[in-house]
Design brief:
It is built from one helix and 50 strands. The protein is mostly beta strands and about 625 residues long. Strands 1, 2, 3, 4, 6, 9 and 11 form a seven-stranded mixed beta sheet that branches. Strands 13, 15, 16, 18, 19 and 20 form a six-stranded mixed beta sheet that branches. The N and C termini lie far apart (about 120 Å). InterPro entries: Ig_7, T9SS_type_B.
Length: about 625
């Protein structure tokens, strides 16, 4: 943990030191930029006038150097790659410092302006890999001294050292810089780099991107009223001019001369004739225009872009009123279809679209979208607006209308056996296509199953489905005659109607309060396919009687037998013994046998009626105490 903290501290200290002499103002384009080439190959060697170290193509030993995009090719104690954090991201000068400190690199920089401020900078890296543990205590740190001499190599203009740059556990580029002033009447300087480190294990370095750039003040442009930058000018507002003022920060220059420039794209700049004062009045702005000002300490340096600094760019953004959105088309949709959104297109992808319910004014329906999902018919109005707060363009109306599709309902129909059925589309004046292939409004079928018809009208289509099921025939199983009720039972369950006269039908199979007599039971299906009938006698037979002389149910007697030509009845006890018999008409039984009362019990009867089935059943004899 202690070693880690030491490394972090050293990195922080190195970074702080490297920032001490950077240009604090505005830098111009590089006057000189040594990249050492691109790619991973080695070379070429530097001229003999630049270094007294020996050139090699692999990893150098003490007193040697190479130029390559690769590091640690043979030397496993070095880092194995360069991080892509330099300006050029290419080859670098790799130096294995000699055992003695001293000069290892010198070069002449031409094209400078006289009496001007500059920044020299370079990237440095300690290439020794601390994790290899090949050297004690992380190896000997690298330490480089930079010297800037005048073009005669007799006057030292500026010098500075990096201080110790310790080895790291991963490769790290650090940028170092010096600022200096060129001499009057001179247009060149000489750069010298010295190894301040000791010889031994370590002190191996890489250098890349040696750059010389002009250094001037940071200059801000302020518009009258300090309205900010950029200024938005809407096409709908009256044209006007503006006063711009250059405001340098005096971080480098003591005196200032100016040259105002303009551009229509922010890339290509043109000097504005005679505009060399601190303040500048623009012409009336009618298009997007950029302004900046070149600043120098001497007028002669304004003539060379490399000898002056440039202010920030001030932009006038001229915003045209958006054109009306272009409709993607009115929508006419069938009422049974999904409603597509209404859409418009705008000339500029940066324009936003709002939707209203009126051509002017009205209510906002949707915003920031070129489409709207509408559900009611009408005209919806789209308006294009820009993002700069300027007036919106004219609105475009897009309509939504519906074609009413006929309302239909699917059907379930019944088909009588061995018969035909007419299937109806249910909509007139349309086009039809049945699942059978027929194209008429109605079709005739003679089989059960699933059928469908597609109905087309005004370009819309709707489908009607018809299920045809077979009719269950109504067959009478038996007739139950109980007291004054008649119950008609069928062999199968189904949707049937019932009648005792063939005219008056009901859904219930139970008839109540029916007087005795001969009846015919009728059953028919609801489709009217078939009617089944059965003739039967109905005699009102008591279920029980109680001979207690109260005048109510004192006798067992038959009602309705008088409607038959002949009838005969027999009564038995539970053991099959005949208790009483006789003709049905007028037959009564008081619950006695041979004049003696029989006990309360169930007794059975048989009723014989001419030409009809034998009727059998039981009756309960109820006795009350004392009777």
């Amino acid at each position: 943990m202690k070693n880690s903290l030491t490394v972090l501290f050293l990195l922080w200290s190195s970074f702080l030191y490297s920032q001490l002499e950077f240009c604090q103002g505005s830098k111009g384009d590089p006057i000189f930029h040594e990249t050492f080439g691109t790619g991973n190959l080695s070379g070429p060697a530097l001229p003999a006038s630049v270094t007294n170290y020996r050139y090699v193509t692999g990893d150098p030993n003490d007193g040697e150097y190479t130029i390559s995009g690769r590091v640690g090719q043979n030397n496993t104690t070095w880092h194995s790659y360069f991080p892509s954090t330099t300006t050029s991201k290419g080859r670098a000068l790799i130096v294995n410092a000699g055992f003695s400190s001293g000069l290892f690199y010198t070069t002449r920089i031409e094209g400078l302006c006289e009496n001007a401020s500059y920044e020299f900078s370079a990237y440095l890296m300690n290439v020794y890999d601390r994790t290899s543990n090949a050297c004690n205590n992380g190896g000997i740190p690298i330490n480089v001294r930079f010297e800037i001499w005048d073009e005669t190599d007799t006057t030292l203009l500026k010098e500075g050292s990096t201080g110790d740059i310790q080895s790291t556990i991963s490769p790290v580029w650090e940028r170092y810089a010096l600022t200096f002033q060129s001499r009057e009447g001179q247009g060149a300087v000489i750069l010298k780099m010295f190894n301040n480190g000791d010889g031994g294990c370590g002190n191996d370095l890489a250098i890349d991107d040696i750059i010389f750039s002009s250094c001037g003040d940071l200059t801000e442009i302020i518009a009258e009223g300090d309205t900010g930058n950029p200024i938005v000018i809407c096409e709908s507002t009256p044209r006007r001019s503006f006063t711009l003022t250059a405001t340098p920060d005096f971080s480098v220059y003591n005196n200032h001369v100016y040259q105002w420039q303009e551009s229509d794209d922010g890339i290509l700049w043109i000097d504005i004739p005679n505009e060399t004062r601190e303040a500048f009045i623009t012409p009336e702005i009618s298009s997007t225009t950029y302004y900046r000002v070149r600043v120098a300490e001497a007028s002669i340096n304004l003539e060379n872009n490399l000898c002056s600094s440039v202010s920030e760019v001030f932009k006038f953004l001229y915003v045209k009123t958006p054109l009306a959105p272009v409709s993607a088309g009115d929508i006419l949709v069938c009422t049974n279809e999904e409603i597509p959104p209404l859409m418009v297109n705008v000339e500029d992808d940066n324009h936003r679209v709002n939707w209203y319910d009126a051509a002017v004014g009205g209510n906002l329906l949707a915003e920031n979208t070129p489409r709207i999902q509408a559900y009611t018919p009408g005209i919806y109005y789209a308006e294009a607006i820009n993002n700069d707060g300027c007036e919106a363009g004219p609105r475009t109306g897009v309509s939504l209308n519906f074609i009413e599709v006929p309302a239909i309902e699917d059907e379930i129909l019944s088909l009588c056996e061995n018969s035909f059925l007419t299937l109806k589309a249910g909509v007139s004046g349309a086009s039809y296509l049945w699942s059978t292939g027929e194209t008429s409004e109605d079709i005739i079928i003679n089989s059960t199953g699933d059928f469908s018809v597609t109905i087309s009208t005004e370009g819309c289509r709707v489908q009607k489905n018809i299920k045809v099921i077979p009719v269950v025939p109504a067959v009478i199983n038996r007739i139950i005659s109980e007291e004054d009720r008649v119950i008609i039972e069928t062999t199968v369950s189904g949707e049937f109607e019932y009648s005792l006269n063939g005219m008056d039908f009901q859904e219930s199979n139970i008839f109540r309060n029916i007087r005795g007599g001969i009846y015919t039971a009728y059953v028919r299906d609801l489709s009217g396919c078939e009617t089944n009938s059965l003739r039967f006698p109905h005699i009102v037979i008591q279920r029980h009687f109680s001979p207690n002389n109260d005048g109510y149910n004192d006798l067992f007697e038959l009602k309705g037998v008088e409607y038959f030509n002949s009838s005969f009845i027999r009564i038995y006890n539970r053991y099959g013994s005949l208790i009483k018999s006789g003709n049905g008409v007028g037959f009564t039984w008081d619950g006695t046998f041979n004049g003696k009362p029989l006990p309360a019990d169930d007794y059975w009867y048989e009723i014989f009626i001419e030409d009809l089935k034998l009727l059998k059943g039981n009756i309960s004899l109820v006795r009350q105490p004392g009777f």
